[in-house]
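QUALITY CONTROL LOG
STEP: pairwise intake check
CHECKER ROLE: data steward
CRITERIA: each record must contain a sequence immediately followed by its structure tokens, with no blank fields

ENTRY 1 OF 2
RESULT FIELD BELOW
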Amino acid sequence: MRRLPGLAALVLLFVSVKPAAADITGFLGADTTPSNRSVKGFALGAGLLIVGFEFEYAATADDILEGAPSLKTGMGNVLLQTPVSVMRMQPYFTFGGGVYREHLQAHEETGVAANTGGGVKVTLAGPLRLRLDYRIFKLGSDALYSPSHRLYAGLNLKF
């Protein structure tokens, strides 16, 4: 009989847990360090009510005249988000880490990086959302420019 309350609590926990949701984002934007350059990429994510996880890949073009290297990043991130949309918007904060590769003419550097940032997912229609995001990347010690700042907009599909 002592186990009955614990078992009942466990059953209620599993019945009340919201199923995991997943999403995919394709994005375009700008890396602003040290000059404005185009960036494109994608993110795949999954999460429960408040905590989410995502993998993100992005590639930034170089600008040889400005001395700005190309930058490729692959990041694993944790998202902390509101459990529901408020006025069709779901704000989030994110942090994570991964690898980067920077290339400018003869210079090439590969290393580890950390990132932090935030944004909002705005519901457009059904599962389609607009995602606006700002990130700061702390690149390894041999990177030409660190931190690197990125701003993007993308289409997000929730499934």
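ENTRY 2 OF 2
RESULT FIELD BELOW
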Amino acid sequence: MVTKDDLKLANIIWDYMNVNNPDPPISDIILCLGSIDTLPAEKSAELYLKGKAPLIVFSGKSGRNSKYLKSNKSEAQILANVAIKKGVPQEAILIEEKSTNTGQNFRYSKKLLAMKGIKVKRLIVSHMPSSLKRDYLIFKKQWREPQPEIFMVSPDIPLEKYYERGFSGKFTLKEVIKDMLGDFQRIKVGFDKGHSAYEEIPEKIKNIYYKLVEKNYTKQLIKDKKGNPLPV
């Protein structure tokens, strides 16, 4: 059970991670990163239909939560199907379905676009609110120069309501918080491993994270050989 105190703490990290741009400018591409959450695909379709970009790239084969989908289709194909049902034409969609992590999402999508002769000077990235800051830091490291101007977007749904529609209905509120903490921890772990750019995490945010770790929101965390979560 998620207590009121837990939710209050989790919302602070949610706001820290959700670097959402509510009204991105017209761009060359919308890149929707793979996950089991179909709401970013709906957001991508919404932006396309508003004329924010002429093309959507859906990227992702599988990830750490793909088992919950119980499908033979790639995450990218599942997300593309969501967008098509929302009115996005097939010819406005590219699918990258080899990547299995966020770094590969960016690298492989960039390669796909280059093969198609598509130049990207301005990029909209669509993903879960709980992942956006980490996504941005990975982009800064993994998308080689020249880097396009980037705008991060996410569904405008608060944490306490997100599980009702997000994550394909597979997660409880507690599991959404656990997944978010996994992405938060990976800001530091990703930098240490050379996968993402550096971010100075405020001490206040770190302390809140550790309070939630003490409350056992640890399922998605990377742990050492002794089973202890790696530090942030």
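INTAKE CHECK: passed for both entries
DESCRIPTIVE NOTE, ENTRY 2: The helical segments are 4-17, 39-49, 75-85, 102-115, 132-142, 159-165, 173-192, 203-214.
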